[in-house]
Design a protein that fits this description.
Elements (H helix, E strand, L loop, with lengths): L4 H21 L4 E5 L2 E5 L10 E4 L8 H15 L5 E3 L5 H9 L3 E12 L17 H11 L7 H9 L5 E7 L5 E10 L2 E9 L8 H15 L4 E7 L3 H10 L2 E10 L6
Parallel strand pairs: 8-9
Antiparallel strand pairs: 1-2, 2-3, 4-10, 5-9, 5-10, 6-7, 7-8
Helix pairs in contact: 4-5
InterPro entries: Acyl_CoA_acyltransferase, Bact_Acetyltransf, GNAT_dom
Organism: Aureimonas flava
Pfam families: Acetyltransf_1 (PF00583)
Protein backbone atom coordinates (compact mmCIF):
# COMPACT_ATOMS: atom_id res chain seq x y z
CA UNK A 1 0.00 0.00 0.00
CA UNK A 2 1.35 3.40 -0.95
CA UNK A 3 2.15 5.74 1.94
CA UNK A 4 0.89 9.28 1.61
CA UNK A 5 2.44 12.38 3.13
CA UNK A 6 -0.41 12.56 5.62
CA UNK A 7 0.27 8.97 6.67
CA UNK A 8 3.93 9.73 7.26
CA UNK A 9 3.42 12.73 9.56
CA UNK A 10 2.27 10.81 12.67
CA UNK A 11 5.02 8.25 12.17
CA UNK A 12 7.73 10.89 12.02
CA UNK A 13 6.22 12.55 15.08
CA UNK A 14 6.61 9.26 16.94
CA UNK A 15 10.17 8.85 15.67
CA UNK A 16 11.11 12.35 16.81
CA UNK A 17 9.70 11.72 20.28
CA UNK A 18 11.47 8.40 20.66
CA UNK A 19 14.74 9.79 19.34
CA UNK A 20 14.58 12.58 21.93
CA UNK A 21 13.79 10.06 24.66
CA UNK A 22 16.72 7.94 23.53
CA UNK A 23 19.08 10.90 23.78
CA UNK A 24 17.91 11.57 27.35
CA UNK A 25 18.08 7.92 28.36
CA UNK A 26 21.62 7.35 27.05
CA UNK A 27 23.23 10.82 27.07
CA UNK A 28 26.40 11.76 25.25
CA UNK A 29 29.00 13.78 27.13
CA UNK A 30 28.73 16.53 24.51
CA UNK A 31 26.19 17.36 21.81
CA UNK A 32 26.68 20.00 19.13
CA UNK A 33 23.90 21.00 16.75
CA UNK A 34 24.67 21.87 13.15
CA UNK A 35 21.22 22.92 12.09
CA UNK A 36 19.12 19.94 13.13
CA UNK A 37 22.00 17.49 12.90
CA UNK A 38 22.86 16.39 16.44
CA UNK A 39 26.59 15.68 16.63
CA UNK A 40 27.02 13.46 19.69
CA UNK A 41 30.46 12.65 21.10
CA UNK A 42 31.60 10.75 24.17
CA UNK A 43 35.36 10.25 24.31
CA UNK A 44 35.18 8.06 27.43
CA UNK A 45 32.79 5.42 26.05
CA UNK A 46 32.83 3.98 22.51
CA UNK A 47 29.11 3.23 22.01
CA UNK A 48 28.05 4.20 18.48
CA UNK A 49 24.88 5.88 19.74
CA UNK A 50 27.07 8.20 21.80
CA UNK A 51 29.51 8.91 18.97
CA UNK A 52 27.55 9.67 15.82
CA UNK A 53 25.89 12.40 13.78
CA UNK A 54 22.11 12.15 14.09
CA UNK A 55 20.09 14.09 11.46
CA UNK A 56 16.68 14.96 12.93
CA UNK A 57 14.78 16.65 10.10
CA UNK A 58 14.19 15.16 6.62
CA UNK A 59 14.04 18.69 5.16
CA UNK A 60 17.41 19.84 6.53
CA UNK A 61 19.66 19.06 3.57
CA UNK A 62 21.55 22.30 2.89
CA UNK A 63 25.35 22.36 2.47
CA UNK A 64 25.66 18.61 3.02
CA UNK A 65 29.32 18.29 2.04
CA UNK A 66 30.45 21.24 4.16
CA UNK A 67 28.58 19.96 7.19
CA UNK A 68 30.00 16.46 6.82
CA UNK A 69 33.47 18.01 6.71
CA UNK A 70 32.78 20.03 9.86
CA UNK A 71 31.53 16.94 11.67
CA UNK A 72 34.57 15.01 10.49
CA UNK A 73 36.89 17.58 12.03
CA UNK A 74 35.07 17.34 15.34
CA UNK A 75 35.28 13.55 15.37
CA UNK A 76 38.95 13.61 14.42
CA UNK A 77 39.69 16.05 17.24
CA UNK A 78 37.90 13.72 19.66
CA UNK A 79 39.76 10.67 18.34
CA UNK A 80 36.58 9.02 17.11
CA UNK A 81 35.76 7.70 13.61
CA UNK A 82 33.08 9.71 11.83
CA UNK A 83 29.74 7.90 11.87
CA UNK A 84 26.24 8.91 10.85
CA UNK A 85 23.19 7.34 12.45
CA UNK A 86 20.56 7.15 9.71
CA UNK A 87 16.98 7.01 11.00
CA UNK A 88 13.73 7.88 9.17
CA UNK A 89 14.53 11.50 10.11
CA UNK A 90 17.58 11.59 7.83
CA UNK A 91 17.13 13.84 4.77
CA UNK A 92 16.74 11.76 1.57
CA UNK A 93 19.30 14.01 -0.12
CA UNK A 94 21.83 13.14 2.60
CA UNK A 95 21.13 9.42 2.21
CA UNK A 96 21.69 9.69 -1.56
CA UNK A 97 24.90 11.61 -0.97
CA UNK A 98 26.26 8.94 1.39
CA UNK A 99 25.23 6.18 -1.03
CA UNK A 100 26.92 7.87 -3.99
CA UNK A 101 30.06 8.55 -1.93
CA UNK A 102 30.35 4.85 -1.07
CA UNK A 103 29.60 5.04 2.64
CA UNK A 104 28.99 1.62 4.20
CA UNK A 105 25.87 0.64 6.15
CA UNK A 106 26.06 -1.54 9.27
CA UNK A 107 24.61 -2.11 12.71
CA UNK A 108 20.95 -2.03 11.69
CA UNK A 109 18.78 -1.76 14.79
CA UNK A 110 15.05 -1.86 15.43
CA UNK A 111 13.19 0.40 17.83
CA UNK A 112 10.18 -1.33 19.37
CA UNK A 113 7.23 0.15 21.26
CA UNK A 114 4.32 -1.24 23.22
CA UNK A 115 1.24 0.07 24.98
CA UNK A 116 1.95 -1.07 28.54
CA UNK A 117 -1.77 -1.40 29.27
CA UNK A 118 -2.02 -4.17 26.67
CA UNK A 119 0.92 -6.22 27.95
CA UNK A 120 0.36 -9.17 30.25
CA UNK A 121 2.66 -8.31 33.14
CA UNK A 122 0.53 -9.95 35.80
CA UNK A 123 3.08 -12.68 36.40
CA UNK A 124 6.01 -10.28 36.60
CA UNK A 125 7.49 -10.07 40.07
CA UNK A 126 7.53 -6.68 41.79
CA UNK A 127 11.21 -6.42 42.56
CA UNK A 128 12.72 -3.39 44.24
CA UNK A 129 15.29 -1.82 41.90
CA UNK A 130 18.90 -1.91 42.98
CA UNK A 131 19.76 1.30 44.83
CA UNK A 132 23.52 0.96 44.50
CA UNK A 133 24.55 2.47 41.15
CA UNK A 134 28.13 1.25 41.59
CA UNK A 135 26.92 -2.33 42.05
CA UNK A 136 24.84 -2.06 38.88
CA UNK A 137 27.85 -0.65 37.03
CA UNK A 138 30.00 -3.61 37.99
CA UNK A 139 27.22 -6.07 37.11
CA UNK A 140 26.73 -4.45 33.70
CA UNK A 141 30.44 -4.62 32.95
CA UNK A 142 30.52 -8.31 33.89
CA UNK A 143 27.38 -9.44 32.06
CA UNK A 144 28.22 -7.50 28.88
CA UNK A 145 31.87 -8.68 29.04
CA UNK A 146 33.02 -5.06 28.86
CA UNK A 147 36.69 -4.45 29.71
CA UNK A 148 37.58 -2.72 32.96
CA UNK A 149 38.97 0.16 30.90
CA UNK A 150 35.36 1.19 30.15
CA UNK A 151 34.36 1.43 33.84
CA UNK A 152 34.94 5.17 34.14
CA UNK A 153 33.18 5.94 30.86
CA UNK A 154 30.10 3.85 31.67
CA UNK A 155 29.95 5.40 35.12
CA UNK A 156 29.90 8.84 33.53
CA UNK A 157 27.08 7.84 31.16
CA UNK A 158 24.96 6.36 33.96
CA UNK A 159 25.63 9.36 36.17
CA UNK A 160 24.49 11.83 33.52
CA UNK A 161 21.04 10.27 32.98
CA UNK A 162 18.50 12.87 34.07
CA UNK A 163 15.12 11.04 33.96
CA UNK A 164 14.60 8.64 36.91
CA UNK A 165 16.59 5.44 36.33
CA UNK A 166 15.93 2.06 37.92
CA UNK A 167 18.64 -0.60 38.01
CA UNK A 168 17.74 -4.29 37.81
CA UNK A 169 20.21 -7.14 38.33
CA UNK A 170 19.66 -10.90 38.56
CA UNK A 171 22.32 -12.91 40.36
CA UNK A 172 23.15 -16.59 40.58
CA UNK A 173 22.98 -18.41 43.90
CA UNK A 174 26.60 -17.52 44.61
CA UNK A 175 25.96 -13.80 44.00
CA UNK A 176 27.42 -13.61 40.51
CA UNK A 177 25.50 -11.19 38.24
CA UNK A 178 23.87 -13.04 35.33
CA UNK A 179 21.46 -10.45 33.88
CA UNK A 180 20.98 -6.68 33.86
CA UNK A 181 18.42 -4.16 32.65
CA UNK A 182 18.08 -0.40 33.00
CA UNK A 183 14.62 1.19 33.12
CA UNK A 184 14.20 4.91 32.39
CA UNK A 185 10.90 6.56 33.41
CA UNK A 186 10.50 9.67 31.24
CA UNK A 187 7.01 11.09 31.80
CA UNK A 188 4.69 8.59 30.05
CA UNK A 189 7.56 6.81 28.29
CA UNK A 190 9.46 3.83 29.66
CA UNK A 191 12.81 3.06 28.06
CA UNK A 192 14.43 -0.32 28.68
CA UNK A 193 18.16 -0.27 27.97
CA UNK A 194 21.41 -2.15 28.61
CA UNK A 195 19.57 -5.50 28.63
CA UNK A 196 21.87 -8.51 28.69
CA UNK A 197 21.93 -12.07 29.99
CA UNK A 198 25.19 -13.90 30.61
CA UNK A 199 25.67 -16.75 28.09
CA UNK A 200 25.69 -19.30 30.91
CA UNK A 201 22.19 -18.24 31.99
CA UNK A 202 20.43 -17.94 28.64
CA UNK A 203 17.38 -19.96 27.52
CA UNK A 204 16.02 -20.06 31.07
CA UNK A 205 13.50 -17.22 30.81
CA UNK A 206 15.65 -14.84 32.83
CA UNK A 207 15.73 -12.15 30.15
CA UNK A 208 11.98 -11.93 29.60
CA UNK A 209 11.39 -12.08 33.36
CA UNK A 210 13.80 -9.19 34.00
CA UNK A 211 12.39 -7.01 31.21
CA UNK A 212 8.82 -7.68 32.36
CA UNK A 213 9.80 -6.74 35.90
CA UNK A 214 11.38 -3.51 34.67
CA UNK A 215 8.28 -2.66 32.61
CA UNK A 216 5.98 -3.37 35.54
CA UNK A 217 8.06 -0.98 37.64
CA UNK A 218 7.77 1.81 35.07
CA UNK A 219 4.02 1.22 34.75
CA UNK A 220 3.70 1.74 38.49
CA UNK A 221 5.55 5.03 37.96
CA UNK A 222 2.94 6.19 35.44
CA UNK A 223 4.52 5.13 32.13
CA UNK A 224 2.08 4.21 29.38
CA UNK A 225 4.35 3.42 26.43
CA UNK A 226 7.39 1.20 26.58
CA UNK A 227 10.25 1.46 24.10
CA UNK A 228 13.49 -0.39 23.55
CA UNK A 229 15.84 -1.25 20.74
CA UNK A 230 17.74 -4.29 19.56
CA UNK A 231 20.10 -5.07 16.70
CA UNK A 232 18.24 -6.51 13.73
CA UNK A 233 20.39 -9.66 13.65
CA UNK A 234 19.69 -10.45 17.32
CA UNK A 235 17.02 -13.08 16.73
CA UNK A 236 16.77 -14.09 20.37
CA UNK A 237 16.20 -10.52 21.49
CA UNK A 238 13.63 -9.87 18.79
CA UNK A 239 11.76 -13.04 19.72
CA UNK A 240 11.78 -12.04 23.38
CA UNK A 241 10.27 -8.62 22.72
CA UNK A 242 7.69 -10.04 20.32
CA UNK A 243 6.60 -12.47 23.05
CA UNK A 244 6.12 -9.57 25.41
CA UNK A 245 3.94 -7.77 22.86
CA UNK A 246 6.28 -5.16 21.39
CA UNK A 247 5.94 -4.07 17.76
CA UNK A 248 8.44 -2.43 15.43
CA UNK A 249 8.24 1.38 15.30
CA UNK A 250 11.19 2.11 13.00
CA UNK A 251 14.75 1.14 12.16
CA UNK A 252 18.05 2.93 11.94
CA UNK A 253 21.45 2.08 10.55
CA UNK A 254 24.97 3.43 10.94
CA UNK A 255 26.92 4.83 8.00
CA UNK A 256 30.70 5.08 7.76
CA UNK A 257 32.85 6.71 5.07
CA UNK A 258 34.97 4.55 2.76
CA UNK A 259 38.01 3.19 4.54
CA UNK A 260 36.49 3.43 8.04
CA UNK A 261 36.04 0.01 9.63
CA UNK A 262 32.47 -0.80 10.70
Amino acid sequence: MATTGADRVPRLTVVRRLEAAGFRAWPASSTYYDGTWAVRLTTSFPAKRLNSVNPLDPADDVAIEARIERAGRRFAAAGRPLLFRQSPLAPPALVRHLDEAGWSSFGESIVYTADLATLDLADAIDRIPLQDARRYLEASLAVHHRPASLREGLEAVLGSIRPPAAYFVRESEDGTPIAVALAISDNDLAGILDVAVHPSARRRGIGIDLVATALRHTAHKGARTGWLQVEADNRAGRALYARLGFAEAYRYVYRAPPGVAA
